[in-house]
């Protein structure tokens, strides 16, 4: 299983914990990249999305990324069509997804002690299937997706909505995130952020 090292995070003043999913709870980013490659190739745009750029854009909604690719490469891809094809391709790779065990074990230890949510840039159907595939569907009190807010990461909307559902003030929330867009979103929301994977440097806004 994917590892990041033992998590011993400060919880002084923290009343809720919010987790990103892809790249934080589950090692699904390689599967997402493969799905992107398949979807873009299907629509005649093979090799336009380099792996380093993909990881830099992690956490953002698929349609938003397609809009950026159109702008950067002079393409005319249909964001809805590419998103659907990418989703179909990703679901074919679910069998290869692994838990990031240390993060999930941390969540298990907090279960029943603090309210917890997932805040993801993915769609509800995809995230639910991902959580089911790795057996952690029942671990979290709330799941907030890009479909639940007006603006995806790096806007703070997803994290603010998660805090509202949990009934906790944003400044009392701890966020675990792996992607630059998600870290920025949580900081904009006024939350304490820990970057996953290691080094686990505490970054407070």
Automatic annotation (TrEMBL):
Pfam families: Hydrolase. One of its GO terms (molecular function) is hydrolase activity. It comes from the Bacteria. Keywords: Hydrolase. Signal peptide: none annotated. The keyword Hydrolase applies. PANTHER family: FRUCTOSE-1-PHOSPHATE PHOSPHATASE, GLYCEROL-1-PHOSPHATE PHOSPHOHYDROLASE 1-RELATED. This is HAD family hydrolase. The lineage of its organism: Bacteria, Pseudomonadati, Verrucomicrobiota, Verrucomicrobiia, Verrucomicrobiales.
């Amino acid at each position: 299983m994917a590892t990041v090292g033992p998590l011993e995070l400060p919880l002084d003043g923290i009343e809720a914990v919010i987790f990103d999913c892809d790249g934080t709870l589950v090692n699904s980013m390689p599967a997402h990249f493969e799905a992107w490659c398949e979807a873009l190739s299907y629509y005649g745009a093979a090799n336009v999305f380099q792996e380093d750029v993909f990881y830099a854009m992690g956490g953002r909604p698929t349609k938003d990324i397609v809009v950026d690719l159109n702008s950067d490469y002079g393409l005319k891809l249909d964001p809805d069509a590419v998103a659907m094809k990418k989703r179909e391709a990703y679901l074919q790779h679910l069998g290869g997804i692994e838990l990031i065990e240390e993060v999930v074990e941390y969540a298990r230890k907090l279960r029943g002690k603090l309210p917890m949510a997932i805040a993801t840039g993915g769609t509800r159907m995809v995230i639910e299937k991902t959580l089911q595939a790795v057996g952690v569907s029942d671990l979290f009190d709330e799941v907030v997706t890009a479909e639940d807010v007006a603006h995806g990461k790096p806007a703070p909307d997803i994290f603010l909505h998660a805090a509202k559902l949990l009934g906790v003030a944003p400044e009392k929330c701890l966020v675990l995130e792996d992607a630059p867009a998600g870290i920025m979103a949580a900081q904009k929301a006024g939350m304490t952020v820990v970057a996953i994977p290691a080094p686990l440097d505490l970054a407070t806004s």
